[in-house]
């Protein structure tokens, strides 16, 4: 219930928060059967929110186990289908938790739902693919050749490319790549370590085809050149004559709220990669509440036609302000 309500709000919020979202090859993702989405991870929790809003099936997302330490927080995180991931290197007490994570993900796959895993194992705000960990390969091996026998499992390389990582007004490109099936790996499953290496080599190649990669030594100017060239597949929407003044009005109307929230989030997330995720999460739940309260206030004082106009018009102005600059 919480998951579906949150997804509904996210689908409403993304067109307001983003300037444009461009999705390619969505038809590759099966609508039935177990699916493992193997994604890059440059946008923190925001990656999962975007992917979850795109696909039709519920998704279950791997996330850092340390955010589950607070029992109350852990309860709500599980309501939105987050699966904690623990590292054996963080202590022997986590080994049992790692097994539980794998078993839970396999249960999800048996229910023909989607598991989203970030195969790099680390989140960095950058435009390149980092070396993949072995977690995705191990999960695929156990699903295909373990007791579960999920031979129909499809591993879908998934790539997200952001125009920037600081707030609203960005374009985002999501590409789904060529699926990986068990038969695509030539190494015998019994040769476990070699099989994992071959799987990762294939997954790396297919993930790289779904994202923009900018050389690590590129200057900021060169980064922008690479970005703008890549984002030609997701052009800035043309601005109709009437949309420009309405967009200006929308930005002016929302600037005080956005500035206050963004400054607060910037302080709270300084030195981390969570700025976008926290800002968007606050807006997803807080903004509809503020719009409803404002509409009720205006409706009570000036009449319900005016309250209805506020309820519809304020979010519309926010959308126009972000899309048409």
TrEMBL record:
Alphabetically, the GO molecular function entries are:
glycerol-3-phosphate O-acyltransferase activity; glycerone-phosphate O-acyltransferase activity
The signal peptide, as residue positions, is none
- Keywords, comma-separated and alphabetical: Acyltransferase, Membrane, Transferase, Transmembrane, Transmembrane helix
Which Pfam family, just one, is annotated for this protein?
Acyltransferase
Record carries keyword Transmembrane helix: yes
Tell me the Gene Ontology biological-process terms attached to this UniProt entry. Answer: phospholipid biosynthetic process
Q: Which SUPFAM superfamilies match?
A: Glycerol-3-phosphate (1)-acyltransferase
Q: Where exactly are the transmembrane stretches of this chain?
A: 273-298, 304-321
Q: Which SMART domains match?
A: PlsC (SM00563)
InterPro entries per the UniProt record, alphabetical:
GPAT/DAPAT, Plipid/glycerol_acylTrfase
Q: Where is the Phospholipid/glycerol acyltransferase domain?
A: 35-163
Q: What is this protein called?
A: 1-acyl-sn-glycerol-3-phosphate acyltransferase
Q: Which organism is it from?
A: Rhabdobacter roseus
């Amino acid at each position: 219930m919480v998951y579906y309500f949150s997804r509904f709000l996210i689908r409403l919020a993304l067109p307001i928060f983003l300037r444009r979202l461009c999705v390619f090859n969505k038809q590759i993702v099966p609508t039935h059967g177990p699916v493992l989405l193997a994604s890059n991870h440059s946008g923190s929790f925001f990656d999962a929110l975007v992917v979850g809003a795109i696909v039709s099936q519920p998704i279950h997302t791997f996330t850092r186990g340390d955010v589950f330490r607070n029992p109350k927080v852990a309860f709500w995180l599980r309501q939105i289908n987050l699966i904690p991931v623990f590292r054996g290197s963080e202590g022997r007490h986590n080994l049992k938790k790692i097994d539980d994570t794998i078993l839970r993900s396999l249960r999800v796959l048996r229910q023909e739902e989607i598991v989203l895993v970030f195969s790099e194992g680390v989140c960095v705000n950058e435009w390149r693919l980092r070396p993949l960990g072995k977690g995705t390969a191990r999960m695929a091996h156990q699903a295909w050749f373990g007791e579960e026998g999920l031979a129909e499992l499809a591993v879908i390389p998934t790539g997200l490319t952001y125009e920037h990582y600081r707030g609203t007004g960005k374009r985002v490109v999501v590409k789904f790549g060529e699926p990986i099936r068990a038969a695509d790996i030539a190494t015998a499953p019994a040769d476990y370590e070699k099989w994992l290496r071959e799987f990762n080599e294939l997954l790396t190649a297919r993930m790289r085809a779904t994202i923009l990669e900018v050389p690590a030594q590129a200057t900021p100017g060169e980064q922008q050149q690479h970005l703008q060239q890549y984002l030609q597949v997701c052009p800035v929407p043309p601005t109709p004559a009437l949309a420009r003044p309405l967009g200006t009005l929308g930005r002016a109307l929302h600037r005080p709220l956005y500035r206050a929230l963004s400054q607060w989030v910037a302080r709270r997330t300084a030195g981390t990669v969570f700025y976008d995720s926290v800002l968007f999460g606050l807006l997803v739940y807080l903004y509809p509440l503020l719009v409803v309260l404002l509409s009720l206030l205006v409706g009570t004082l000036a009449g319900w036609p005016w309250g209805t106009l506020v309820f519809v018009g304020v979010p519309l102005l926010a959308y126009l302000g972000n899309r048409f600059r």
